[in-house]
Structure formats: C-alpha cells, structure tokens
Amino acid sequence: MIERHFGESAPLTVGIEEELMLLDAETLEPVDAVGLFVGEADGGRMKTELHASVVELNTDICAGVDEAVEALRSLRAEAARIAAANGLAIAAAGAHPTATFESLPVVQEERYLAMLRDVGYAARRQGVNGLHVHVGMASADECYDRMEALLPWLPAVLALSANSPFLDGEDTGMLSNRALVLSELPRAGAPPAFGSYDAWEAWTERLVALGVMDDYTRLWWDVRPHPRFGTLEIRIADQPTSLERTALVARTIVDLVASARSRDPMPRGDYLQNRWAAAQSGLGAQVIHPDGDRLVTVRHLLGDPPEPEAMRQRELGPERAAADLVARTLG
C-alpha cells in the first residue's frame, strides 16, 4: 500500500506550487541560478525543478486560497530580493517567450538526470512552467471520486490559465503551448478510468514493481492523487504571471473540486478534444459540455471570467513580452 495521509487536515485545505523563471536582469535570458534560491530561502519553501533556470515556490497547508496566495506573495518577494542581490530577475509564465528548450540548463541531480535518460528528448523539452494546486481530501475514496468529477472541467481551467503563447520565440497560434509539450511525456494528459482508488493504487504499484517508474510522482497527468500529502493535485494550469490570476485559477479549482457533480467517467476522447481546443483558443474555445450533448464556449461554462494573460503577451510579441513578464511578476 502507498503511504497515505488523507483526512489528516481539514477537507478542502489548499497548498499551491508556483514555478518561476530565473533570468539575467539585463538580457532577460534564463540562467542557471536555482542553487542560490534553494540555499538562501528560509523554511525549504523554494525547491528545484528539472531546469536550473526555474525555482519552485510552495506554500504550507493553508485554510483556503486567500491564505495560500498571501504565502506566495511573501515567497515571490523573497525570491525577488535574492534575485536583485545577484543581478537576476524573476518572471512568471507558462514558458519563456524567446528561449529555446535546448538552451535551458538542467539541474545536475540524479533524479533529473535519470529522467533525461529514461524519457529522452521529450524530457529536455519540458522547459515549461505550471501552477499546481493541492486540495485536501477526507479519504482515498473521496480523492478518487473528486478526480473523476473534476476531470470534465479541467480543460476550462487550462483555458482560464493559458499563458504560454510562444514556443522557441514563435507565436504558434496556441495560447497554451505548455499543454502540448506536457503531452509528450509518458503517462500524461488524462488519467485512465480505473473505477476506484484501490484500482488506481494497484495499477500504480504494479508499474513500480515492473520498473516502469520509480513512484506515483512519475505520473504526469493533469490531475492525480497525492496520497503522501493527502491531497488531490491539479496540475493542468499554466503558471500565471500575476498573483491575482493565480488566485482566480486556484479559487476556480477549489470551487470545482467542492461542487463538481459525480457522473460516469468522462469519455477520454472528449477530454482530449476539449484539452486541445482550450490550449488553442482559451476562453473562446468550443468544447464538449460535461453532459456530453452540446458544444459551448469555455467562457460560457465559467461565467465570463477575464481574458487570460496569454492574450496580452501575444499582443506584445515575444521580445516585449519577456520584459513585461518581469515587470508584472510581483503582482
């Protein structure tokens, strides 16, 4: 049995992870600098990711979204202080507007080097940044039920967060290139319909025993159980630039986890179609309604939220977008 801690905190408690880019303050190009942040930050709330030009900020368990966002505000301020003291800048978006994936330095730790060996070129292309929201679950069964209930709504969350319109400096016509890049990983996209938490756990343990993966954290799905934290982890969102957008996306996620109606498992073909449409067109995407019998816009589903930040970045173009991200990252 996988170690589990469901029910050890109140239901619907929140933890948030943000992935911020580390840039040279003059050129605004990514730099290998995460060691400065991990070494100087207090409390272990800044961590490494695959690429050494990214630092992960992570909150403690919070009572709600507002508390988590205030924790992130303090973490962003601390990251900005460390950056300024070292001739660097921090920036937040789903992907850097101009840098090529091949130029991004990799953290020289065995877990990341093993990922490069095992996954190959697709791993090196994962120079994209996401917002991960953990929501506390009362039990393992509740976690699985909420995962299936939430799944039809995840493309709408992607549309709301879309913030990576450039790939290798090119305007690709997609508002979230990160969503497509993540799809290149094994065990990505939508989780299979297992039917129960126990069936998910048995499948996961079998793949670990076969040597397919080290543990369940190598499931790079858009949503997954995180039993060691006792949470449902929602991973589909692009990294927002402003904290206001982080708050909006996180609040939408928590509200959906709490209120999404349980139903038969969503057809994974419908999910893939909606995910692609949301990545391409954001809030204006035409998606298959969760009830399966009509097309609606994401904006209709979510009740007319504001445009995602990718719209503004596309208007700026990649050259000006990099500077704009730095200017707005402390919002």
List the keywords:
Creatine Kinase, Chain A, domain 2; 7-stranded antiparallel β-sheet; two-stranded antiparallel sheet; 331 residues; alpha+beta; single chain; 41% helix
Alpha carbon gyration radius:
19 Å
CATH architecture: 2-Layer Sandwich
In DSSP terms (H or I, runs of 4 or more residues), the helix count works out at 13
- Structural class call reads alpha+beta
CATH class: Alpha Beta
Give the low-confidence spans.
none
- Average predicted confidence as pLDDT: 95
Query: What is the makeup of the main sheet?
Result: 7 strands, antiparallel
What is the N-to-C succession of helices and strands? EHEEHEHHEHHEEHEHEEEHHEEHHH
The first-to-last residue Cα distance is 42 Å
Q: Summarize this, please?
A:
The chain has 331 residues and is of the alpha+beta class.
Explain what the structure shows.
The chain is of the alpha+beta class and 331 residues long. It has one domain: Creatine Kinase, Chain A, domain 2 (2-Layer Sandwich), CATH 3.30.590.20. It contains 13 helices and 13 strands. It has helices at residues 34-40, 65-85, 110-119, 121-124, 140-150, 154-161, 177-182, 197-210, 243-259, 268-281, 298-302, 309-316, 318-328, and strands at 14-24, 46-48, 54-58, 88-91, 130-136, 166-167, 170-171, 188-189, 220-221, 223-226, 231-238, 286-288, 295-297. The strands form four sheets. Strands 1, 2, 3, 4, 5, 10 and 11 form a seven-stranded antiparallel beta sheet that branches. Strand 2 and strand 3 form a beta hairpin. Helix 2 runs antiparallel to helix 9, helix 6 (154-161) packs antiparallel against helix 9 (243-259) and helix 12 packs across helix 13. It starts with 13 loop residues before the first strand and ends with a helix.
